[in-house]
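Sample entry was shown:
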Amino acid sequence: MSVASLTRIDVIQRAWPLVFANAAVPLAGVTDTFVLGLSGDTADLGGVALGGAIFSVFYWSFYFLRMGTTGLTAQADGAGDTAETQRIVLRALAIAAMLGLLVFVLRDLIALGGFALLQGEAEVEARGAHYLLARAWGAPAALAAFALSGWLIGLGRNTATLAIYGVFSAVNIGLDLWFVLGLGYGPGGVGAATAIAEWVGLAAGLGLAAHALARQGGWAGGVLDRVRLTDPRALAEMFQVNLNLMIRTWSLVIGFTWFANAGARQGTAPLAGNHVLLQIISLWAFVLDAFAFVAETEAGRAFGRRSLPALRKAVRLTGEPMFAAGAIFAVLTFFLGADVLSLVIEDEAALEAAITYLPWCAVVPFLGAGAWLLDGVFIGTTSGKILRNAGLAAVAVYLAADAILAPAFANHGVWAAFLIFYIARGAALAAAYPALERRLQPVPTASETDANPSA
């Protein structure tokens, strides 16, 4: 267990590896698109886009394996219970294996149902199926990597997390170039490259986990005891936390999907402009999420130690650089965004639309910082119900705002409602934060209450 006092330098040093770890997965996706753009045709690109969209529904729905494992591990680490930190990763890996195997076994049904909903041309669907069915071979490894990375983040081993996804990205990129440009395998080759990279990344993760276990002195006493490992209360807590996190993730997916649909209703140029601006937001989110991950670990440790001062310090020291970086990113986007957009968008109508709505995009890093920070705090304290309720409330507010603002102000209304979505997420979590602090305040004993009748 780490009990050293958290400092601002600690936050920066622990956040930077996570910036690159967060960027590794989308970097691999960019390479998928790049190699197909060089060697394939629009059917290849469209097939991978559809197949990837279907697979992402399951992939991100199971991201709770990363978040829930981080929170539970950090709390056990904060409480000094090494044995429980080790039991948590074993339980998480068992759940990941079952879910991953389920996705693999049902891959044909998933493809059939997915393409029935996201209909495309026959050739596009066929190539998308090649991608999806090949990619499904890596599902067990991908979900197990979620569990392992969550465990390592919970222990504060963020450089190890960078190594896992760095290995994944490097292998995926190398195999993409070989399978697609060298061997001409097309979308199936892209899916196979990703699946193989996920297994290699898992192997790297297991090696790093073994190193972390060695640093803990090996397996703690009683870790492999079947009764303790399958303790119904611990399993019920993990199930409840993960279920609430999954519902929370779905609510956010609904919100972002609605934003894309709302842009589509405004026409082709606004849709294209919105899509590019959303990529800028995603880039900044990758950076700011690194501070949120540190907040997860430190809030969880504080919660495990039942220390209110440590929780407040964790929120303050992770929040300061997050809001500062969000403000800097907002200024950079506002003043330099138009020049960058002119370099990456050739279509004049799409470029004009993106520049027109750039100011809305620019303020998201700062306005969204509060939501991202408190996400980390509540994930670390495994406050799944709060995250679930805040996500559902925020998406309900967003849909209502879009219904009012979009018809009245067109795409400006679409963006205004989208900003309200971020504000609502942050406000809902901020409203719940005082209750979190009260859970760490000591309850007065009967003798203390008698001694102070006004208490």
User: Anything to note?
Assistant: Confidence is low (pLDDT under 50) at residues 445-455. The two ends are 36 Å apart (CA to CA).
